[in-house]
Amino acid sequence: MAGIVRLGHGQDFPPTSEALDYPNGLLAAGGDLSPERLLAAYRRGIFPWYEAPQPVLWWTPDPRSVLFVDELHIARSLRKTLRRGGLQLAVDQRFEKVMQACAEPRDGVEGTWIGADMLRAYTQLHYLGIAHSIEVLDHDGALVGGLYGISLGRVFFGESMFSRIPSASRIALVALAYILRRGGGVLIDCQVESAHMNTMGARTISRLDFEKTLAHTIDATLNPATWALPATCGDLLP
Q1: Above 60 in pLDDT, residue 110?
Q2: Pairing mode of beta strands 5-7, 26-30
Q3: How does DSSP assign the chain, residue by residue?
Q4: Alpha-carbon span 161 to 146, nearest angstrom
Q5: What would the pLDDT profile of 161-215 be if each residue is shown by its tens digit?
Q6: What is its EC number (predicted)?
Q7: CA distance 117 to 101
C-alpha cells in the first residue's frame, strides 16, 4: 500500500485526484467506520472495501459505474417476471439479514468483505435513517433477494445485492429505481463496472463527472415517505 495516505484519527481524506491508477481508485488506508467518517467519505464519492485483518481501505475508482434512474433497462423476460406478481416487496424491514445474505460466499469463493465491523457500521447508519435495504420475499415471506446501500441527497450508493432465486436482485434494483424516481433521485452509484449492472442500463463515467454530479445532488433532501413500495413486484410497472 505504498504511495497512499494512512489516515490518522480525525484526519481528512486526501484529494481524490491522488488515488492510485493501480489498484484502480485506492485512495487511503486506516481510519474507522464511524458514521461521521462514512458520511464524509460518501459525500465525496469515496467508499470502504477491504477484508479483515487489513486496515480499512478507501476507494474512488475512475471510471465510475453508475445507473441513471431514467436509464434503467428492464428486459422483456424480467418484465414478464414482474407482471406475474408472485413476489412480495418490503423496505427496511430486514436490513441486517440483507447484509448477512450479501456476505454469504458465492460461487465457491471463501471469505467476504462484509465483515462484522462493516455490518455494525452500516446497521448504525440504518438506524440513523441513512442506509436502506430493499427486500424481495417469496409467497411464504422468506427472503429471496435484496440489496442495501446509502442514500444521500438524490443519489443512492449501492453496496451489494444478492439473489436466492433467479432475477431477485434485478427485481430489487427495479424496486429501488421505483423509489428514487418517485422521490426525485437521479443516480445509483454502482461503484465498479459489472456485466450484471450493464444489462440493467449502467454505464461508466469519469470520476470528475461523477463528482460534479454529486456536487449538484448531495445536499438535496428526499422525503422519508419516499421509502415505500407496493406490496408485490407486479405493481412496479406502469
Answers
A1: no
A2: parallel
A3: -TTSEEE-TTPPPPPGGGS-TTTTTEEEEE----HHHHHHHHTTT-EE---TTSPPEEE--SSEEEEEGGG----HHHHHHHHHT-SEEEESSSHHHHHHHHTS--TT----S--HHHHHHHHHHHHTT-EEEEEEE-TT--EEEEEEEEEETTEEEEEEEEESSTTHHHHHHHHHHHHHHHHT--EEEEES--HHHHTTT-EEE-HHHHHHHHHHHTT----GGGS---SBGGGG--
A4: 6
A5: 999 999 999 999 999 999 999 999 999 999 999 999 999 999 999 999 999 999 9
A6: 2.3.2.6
A7: 16
Domains of the chain (ranges, CATH numbers): 5-61 (3.30.70.3550), 65-236 (3.40.630.70)
